[in-house]
Amino acid sequence: MQHTTQNSITYFSDSSVNGITVPERFTFPFYYEPHQLTQIAAAELQHYLETQTELDHNFGLTADQQGLVIGKMFGVLVVQDNNGKLGYLAAFSGKLAGTNNHPKFVPPVFDMLIENSFFLKEEEILNSINQQIKAIESDEHYSILKSNFEQFTAQSVLEITAFKKQLKSNKENRKKHREAQQPVLSEQEYTHFEADLIKQSLSDKWELTVLSNRWKQLLEVTQSEITLFENSIEALKKERKEKSAALQQQLFEQYAFLNQDGKEKSLQAIFSETVFGKPPAAAGECATPKLLQYAFLNSYKPIAMAEFWWGASPKSEIRKHRQFYPACTGKCKPILSHMLEGVPMDENPLLKNSGEGTTLTIVYEDDCLVVVNKPAELLSVPGIQIQDSVYTRLQAAFGNIEPLIIHRLDMSTSGLLVVAKTKEAHKHIQRQFLKRTVIKRYTALLSKVISGEEGEIKLPLRGDLDNRPSQLVCFEFGKKAHTRWKVIQRNETTTKVHFWPLTGRTHQLRMHAAHELGLNAPIVGDDLYGTASNRLHLHAAYLEFVHPRTKETLCFEAAEAF
Questions:
Q1: Contact by Cβ (8 Å): 292, 77
Q2: How far apart, in whole angstroms, are the C-alpha atoms of residue 525 and residue 533?
Q3: What is the pLDDT of residues 431-451, one digit of tens each?
Q4: Which end of the chain is more exposed for a tag (fewer CB within 10 A), N or C?
């Protein structure tokens, strides 16, 4: 397949795109199936990445690569030039091999790394401040002072504690001496004797005061010398913080994004209108904003986009080599909302009620509760855009009884849900969930054949603030997430398993299945952590809890429909 490249645009050969219909609307960036044109462009870009020798970047794809492994998100944008000729642009997120500029790829929206740029000059100043801080922190006299202060503090506590113990013993001895001498001494003799004991007591207290003051003075002198160093460090850190904030603000203003009408908007202006108030780290460095910026600067018409991951998976996110992913919501959505303003776009599939026309089956019902078998793609509770849900359907069915939701299933997950009809039942069953006495078992079809028969996964999870609703594995800030699993069937390319979630974190089973430290096998149809299919092959198949009124153990089972 022969293509030509000119000014960062790679033109398709007529034979490669012959018979392919050009889409009338641009790709919805946050949920899409790659168009055939973007698949062709991505395939060629991936071939380039496999065969190129110029890039000195460690993607972690070969055993002989040493050092820090950094996988990358790459993007392709199919465009039409001024003559209506089809081609594509390519970009990468962030920097590649430590630089922004490579012949195959469009430039960044703003290049911080060009020679003599204000960023590099300010960065040099910040580096100088860092070196000054490091020099002070490693100063030998400063280290000795801190070490002495720790030793003096410990020694003073030991000496003063030991002296107080001695004073206590002296006091007890005086008391015993007093009790022994009082019956045998005359009144005059006892008066002199008591005065002597008082002198001993006052002497002890004086010596304690002298000892305490001596240590206090030594510690204060040492601390004052340490404070001179610490004040210098704090002053430098304050200067660094102020310069860093000013540099960041200057960068935010330099990142100015175009739309098809040539309207320019800075990063700061874009994010000032969001709940963030200011841009998150690395905003504007993703592939798709770079691609659109270059297209608008050169009067190219955007036709379709796609992004794919290239390289080893990061430790926190679910990123598979060669797999397509949507643009991130936290960093890119506000930017792309401006850049794509007025561009005819595919409908947002997330606004479509995919659960419409599905059947909510009631498995069990009495005066206290109802157990339902939720179909895939039906919400458990109403969403912002879509009201249709288990809650609204039961509300309609119950009439004047309010359904009280106890637990939820992801929209894409099918299976058993228990819903209370009374506050007492809700409280009772909710307590069982909190105490983790409710038994839940899920059935899932994994996207590959896994090794092992059964086991447990313990990977802590937290929300990805830059890409909601995705989750991250995070050992520092994540919440405990614990899953037990067992293989029940192996097929030629898939594995069916049972999951027992011992905690109830968002997307727990999906993350534990997909992550490389879990089963490293995304659930079939998982459009967040794997590859989309006709549905997510995850089903809540078994539910067991104690009836709030009869105290009978209720067990329910519903077979999966996949």
A1: yes
A2: 4
A3: 999 999 999 999 999 999 999
A4: N
